[in-house]
Design goal:
Order of helices and strands: EEEEHEEEEHEEEEHEE
Helix content: 10-25%
Strand content: 35-45%
Radius of gyration: 19 Å
Number of strands: 14
Shape: elongated
Structural class: mainly beta
Strand order of the largest sheet: 3-2-1-4
């Protein structure tokens, strides 16, 4: 849950309630209770979930600070046994073997992220995750250093990736994808795409798109 969402934690101190991971119990699309982690910086949002561990079914929602998230990650990185997590309204305690980590929680309300999740996209792209990641990495070299913009051009069975910069340098990649929808051209910050592809673990990924001006959904294929 930490690894798949922490890259999207905001570093903007004015919106302090986004400076951590929102951990809470939720119902998934199948109606089953899951433990979910969410992080957003206002530009992209990362969400991961797993079957609710024992004791987490009624977790109403806490915001774990960015630094605490990193410390928990270090504490449990090499462990293969279970860890105990205790949560109150104001603090979180993680027990891993003989180590105990106690931290304050962020006192604030996490936004209603469900409202901004893209829904109803009618264009589905399925692609090889590693191949896509490598194509984005190569193209990113010639993107604008400040804005990191790239353009995706979709047509049946094919994705073209283009980038250029103020020095008039251009890059273009083509990659075969599973796509049967109408032609579409859409722009992205390539860093955001690389961040999410680097934490996904499936061989294939899905991109669900609506149009050039709407948010996109990137999911592990399963």
């Amino acid at each position: 849950l930490i690894d798949k969402t922490r890259f999207a934690i905001s570093t903007e101190e004015t919106r302090y309630y986004l400076n951590g991971i929102y951990l809470h119990a939720a119902k998934n699309d199948a109606g089953k209770t899951v433990l979910r982690s969410v992080a957003t910086d206002g530009h992209r949002l990362a969400l991961a979930e797993l079957k609710a561990p024992k004791g987490s079914e009624k977790l109403a929602g806490v915001i774990v600070p960015r630094k605490t998230v990193s410390e928990i990650r270090r504490l449990i990185e090499a462990r293969t046994d279970e860890v105990a997590v205790e949560v109150s309204d104001t603090k979180i305690v993680v027990r891993a073997g003989r180590a105990v980590l106690t931290s304050k929680l962020i006192d604030g309300s996490f936004p209603d992220y469900e409202r901004v999740l893209p829904r109803g996209g009618d264009k589905l792209v399925v692609a090889d995750r590693q191949g896509l990641r490598e194509a984005f990495s190569r193209t990113a070299i010639l993107s604008n250093e400040k804005y990191r913009g790239i353009r995706l051009q979709l047509e049946s069975g094919l994705l073209k990736i283009q980038a250029n910069n103020p020095e008039q340098e251009e890059a273009e990649e083509e990659i075969a994808v599973d796509y049967n929808g109408s032609a579409l051209e859409i722009g992205f910050n390539v860093s955001y795409l690389l961040d999410v592809l680097s934490v996904m673990t499936t061989e294939q990924v899905r991109l669900i798109l609506s149009d050039a001006n709407s948010s996109a959904l990137v999911q592990e294929a399963d």
